[in-house]
Amino acid sequence: MTNKQELKVGIAVLGTVGKSLAKAMDQGIPGVKLTAVAARDHAKAQAWLSQLVHKPMLMTYEEMAGACDIVVECAPATILGDILTPVLRAGKTVVVLSCGGLLSRPDLIELANESGGHIHVPTGALLGLDAVIAAAEGNIHAVRMITRKPVKGLLGAPYLEANGIDISQIKEPVRVFMGNAREAAKGFPANLNVAVALSLAGVGPDETVLEIWAYPDGELARNKHSIIVDSDAAKFEMTIENIPTENPKTGRITAQSVLALLRKAGAPLRVGT
After folding, report:
1. pTM over 0.85
2. 15, 39, 124, 222: least surrounded by Cβ within 10 Å?
């Protein structure tokens, strides 16, 4: 594949996941090229980018929308609209990791529909989304998800602070939330994008039942998600234990999921739904 045929990719922004993606893409992925990045601190971003062999341009979200075919959003959900709006308005594709933010911004989905743009939610820290999507072609009776995280992966969540739930000194596992994916997206915006992705693949955010458990320090080293799906096509249970990055709220496999998506975009053979 020649450079003219390469898909131009932008990353917004250079946080834990963004840096991991940039490093991996700098090593080369057939059919795609890291063209641009956006960052809140340009001086710090320029210093970090100096280590790359193929340095992308630092751009604003608007500039990136014009220069790139695909933009990967890996930023706080609070700036989701700032990143997505120019990309979708340009009729381009955006890969969204902060998918919980989409539940309160249906206008972004409508914008994609009107402009011919695309919003792609990757598998991320879950497994089996292909099976859930396939089951949704029939009738899904119920979807339940149980998330277990170390205390440090949940500290600071708005739901805990709003309800006066202190988990900093717990000595045994504590269930801190029981509700649906829509409520979890509001209460745990940095933690439960996985639940929203599951809900979008299956029965929707209001019908996807979710439990969140906090585990004392030292008792649980990985973020653990268990999913139970009952449908007219199949009944299946899945469990994944994700190794966290230096950011305890994010698993290593999240960035790898995006890399797999980008590799598939430029590949002659694509496996999976």
Report:
1. yes
2. 222
Give, in degrees to the nearest 5, the angle at Cα 119 between 196 and 191.
30
Q: List helix spans (H) across 136-208.
A: 158-162, 181-187, 193-201
Exposure on the CB side of residue 127, measured as CA atoms within 13 A? 12
Cα gap 180→134, rounded to integer Å: 22
Catalytic residue among 118, 120, 141, 225: 225
Q: And the tokens for 236?
A: 């299946």
Taking a C-beta distance cutoff of 8 angstroms, is the pair 154, 262 a contact? no
Element (H, E) at 175: strand 174-180
Per-residue pLDDT tens for 96-123? 999 999 999 999 999 999 999 999 999 8
Distances (CA, A) of 179 to 64, 153, 195, 204: 38, 19, 11, 13
Pair of tokens at residue 148: 């277990």
Told to judge if 54 belongs to the known catalytic residues of this protein, a careful annotator would answer no
Domains of the chain: 3-124+253-265 (3.40.50.720), 129-249 (3.30.360.10)
- Provide the CA 103 distance to its chain's centre, in angstroms: 14
